[in-house]
Design brief:
Elements lengths: L2 H11 L7 H8 L4 H33 L7 H32 L7 H33 L1
Length: 145
């Protein structure tokens, strides 16, 4: 199997199922296998950033929407929103540091940038899932009260 055939299959096997067919086609039309790989990784990272941001904003918006005029729970909800913001900022710092460390191990290779982006993509997807789980637990606990 030639490198031109192997790399696009490799890119698709990395879990890029969320990438639209037209975007995959766009990546496959680039000339070199390295550019194809970089294109796929970059597109998947953009999707993970979008997912993370939308999930984070969904949780913040829901916490804000639960506040009611004159309700003593407003303090608790605002405190939760503040802690979520602090947590997210800390997590972003952790993600950057962790992925830099992971890529640093490959400093002498050409795959350092790809490793860094793949690390960030995986971290974004995991964090979005974590925030979604938090959001669902919060909604379930709020419904009980």
């Amino acid at each position: 199997m030639s490198a031109r055939v192997f790399l696009p299959i490799f890119v698709l096997s990395l879990g890029f199922s969320s990438v639209a067919t037209s975007e995959i086609s766009e990546c496959l039309t680039t000339k070199s296998p390295e550019n194809q790989l970089q294109c796929g990784i970059t597109q998947d990272f953009a999707k993970s950033e979008q997912l993370l941001n939308s999930t984070y904003n969904k949780v913040l918006t829901d916490l804000a929407s639960r506040q009611e005029f004159g309700n003593e729970r407003n303090f608790v909800l605002e405190n939760m929103r503040s802690r979520l913001r602090i947590s997210q900022r800390s997590w972003l710092y952790f993600r950057e540091s962790q992925c830099e460390l992971e890529a640093f191990g490959l400093l002498a290779t050409q795959h350092t940038t790809a490793t860094y982006i793949v690390c960030q993509t995986a971290a974004n997807n995991a964090r979005a899932n974590e925030l979604d789980t938090y959001f669902e637990k919060f909604k379930a606990n709020s419904a009980k009260q």
